[in-house]
Structure formats: C-alpha cells, structure tokens
Write a structure and sequence with these properties.
Layout: E1 3-6, H1 12-27, H2 33-41, H3 43-56, E2 60-65, E3 68-77, E4 87-94, H4 103-112, E5 117-122, H5 126-134, E6 138-146, E7 149-156
Parallel strand pairs: 4-5
Antiparallel strand pairs: 1-2, 2-3, 3-4, 5-7, 6-7
Helix pairs in contact: 1-3
GO molecular function, one term: acyltransferase activity, transferring groups other than amino-acyl groups
Keywords: Acyltransferase, Transferase
InterPro entries: Acyl_CoA_acyltransferase, Bact_Acetyltransf, GNAT_dom
Length: about 160
C-alpha cells in the first residue's frame, strides 16, 4: 500500500530527485532536452530551494511506496493576477512506474478534493490532459510560452 504524508524539509533531497525523474518521465520529447539537462545540472541549488520551500509551505503531499518517493502534489492560493479560481494545483506528478494505478487521483483528491481549481499543463502532454479532463477540468483558452514550451490553463468549477 502506498502511503500519503506531508513533506518536511528533511525530504528536500529525495523530493528534488523525484521531481527531476518525473519531469524526465513526463516531458522527454515534449520540451527541449537542454531544459531537462539543465535542471539536473542545477540539482544542488534545487535541493536548497526545495528545503526552503518545504519549510515555508508544509502543504506538499508525498506518495511513499516501501520507503521510496513515487509521487507528490501541491495546491494553494492562486498565483495568477486574474485567476479563474482561488485555488491552484501547482504540482502533481507520479513516477511512470505508477501511471494508471490510481495514485494520481489519490494525490489530486488529497490536495484539492472536489473544490474548484485551475492548473497549467504543458501543451502536448496528452496523458496529463486526459487525466485532468477525467477529473472535471477543461481548457479555458489562456496560455503562455516559456522555454520549456507552451502552458495551457485548465479549470474546474
């Protein structure tokens, strides 16, 4: 059984490694490889940023399978200037080895429940789009470009 628990600053290194791995799982072929490579090159600084983040924002949920991190999720107040909902899903990732196991739904339920919310998804990430559509999200037409690609907004009311 996979346990869900809140993250602490002690999880910074393992969570950073998980985040690097799940980005490779989800985004290889969808964004420039140089973006993924640079994230790995910046690992040490990312661990320190994550440690500070976990100290300031304790509402990060981890999925732990036999002592190994296999997923995480975080939601909180909207960051956009004119948000379509007051709650934003900021991150939801699981290892490819745990795709289609229900773990993503468990994490989503943990951080959002059935509350209205929005999120940003990378254009072309068909697996994620289908997952969020099944959870009641739909595109609202908003988008922006970053070095890793186009981000599209999905909203659940």
């Amino acid at each position: 059984m996979i346990d869900l628990r809140t993250a602490t600053a002690k999880d910074a290194e393992a969570l950073t490694d998980l985040h690097l791995d799940v980005w490779d799982d989800a985004y290889s072929g969808l964004m420039p490889q140089s973006v993924l490579d640079q994230r790995r090159a910046d690992r040490a600084a990312a661990v320190e940023r994550r440690r500070a983040w976990l100290t300031a924002d304790p509402d990060v949920w981890l999925a732990v399978d036999d002592g190994r991190l296999v997923g995480f999720a975080n939601a909180g107040p909207a960051r956009d200037d004119d948000p379509p909902a007051q709650l934003e899903l900021k991150a939801l990732y699981v290892r490819a080895s745990h795709y289609s196991t229900g773990l993503g739904r468990r994490l989503l339920g943990q951080v959002l429940g059935d509350r209205p919310a929005y999120l940003w998804v990378l254009a072309g990430n068909v697996r994620a789009v289908r997952f969020y559509e099944r959870a009641g999200f739909s595109f609202d037409g908003a988008g922006f470009d970053e070095p890793e690609g186009r981000h599209l907004r999905m909203v659940r009311t």
